[in-house]
Amino acid sequence: MTFVKRTELQMFDGRQIFYYDSTPVDRTAIDARPFEPRPLPGDMREDVLTGEWVAMASHRQGRAFLPPKEFCPLCPTKSDFGTEVADNNFEVVVFENRSPSFSAPSDQLPPETIQTLGRCEVVAFSDHHEGSFGSLDFAHMRTVLAAWIDRTREISKLPYVEQVFVFENRGEEVGVTLNHPHGQIYSYPFITPRTSKMLQVAQAHFDKTGVPLITSIIDREINDQVRVITQNEYWIAYVPYAARYPFEIHVAPKVFVPDFAELSEVAADAFPEIAKEVLLRLDGVFGIPMAYIAAWHQAPVRKGRDVLGLHWQITSVRRAPGKLKYLAGSESAMGVFIMDVKPEASAQQLRDVQL
Question: Would you name the residues annotated as active-site residues?
Fold first, then answer.
């Protein structure tokens, strides 16, 4: 069993911060920044054309935007500039977002307001300013995974959270505002539109076959082989049959689990090697760091847990060096994607990368 110690402390404005260490380190650093009140929750508004919710979080306009290294809020505190992490070093740290899109209930808003209930957390993968999840070593990746598991388990206990979403944005092309290697955890008070659609399809498949959809997909990919990038005893990585992006990789545990909290220790221990290979192959396609969104899909907290399985979807809008796939008319307005490269060809490019 992998050892990871969690230390919970408090930030200058009352937010929680969690240190995750693979060695028994004592964490006692005090966030000495002067107190500032936290922003009130925003409000949610329903798009009456689609029935979908839109979160209004105007306080996020003032958040940090690509600051220089010496003013990075995710680095450890080593000077008079107080960062979000009070200690002078860390392995992996998670804290409540200072400018959250979703937050805990407040009694300071008008009673008619539909509050953006939920929780937003930042996951700093390392105390090094440069890098990304894929640049970590296996042991460090495993500590990040332990943090994802722990936070999913704990956040799922909040009565106003319906779905926990773990993700990493990498590259300014996909909207990154801080270059420090990090990801985020968004916890929603509703089931998101994409998950609702996936849940509907997965339930229909389960009702017809008695088998979770992700299990059937894995079986097909293993049988077809042409889209499989790599696999080990516990995980498989493949380009999906109907990929939407120039480079899209799905990574799934071979044994169905609904979310991080139910992932076995042996599967968790086997994850870093396949994650490392997939991300190295992605960077190796053009020999440059690939901009991507790495999104973990897992079952909602209280619905569909026997049909919707945990898996990782990594998508990149880069189609060639210096060229991006823009989500233009058909994709943005209608949600209908047009792919210029067949998934089988994309998978071959990824397999051909020399590691």
Answer: 182
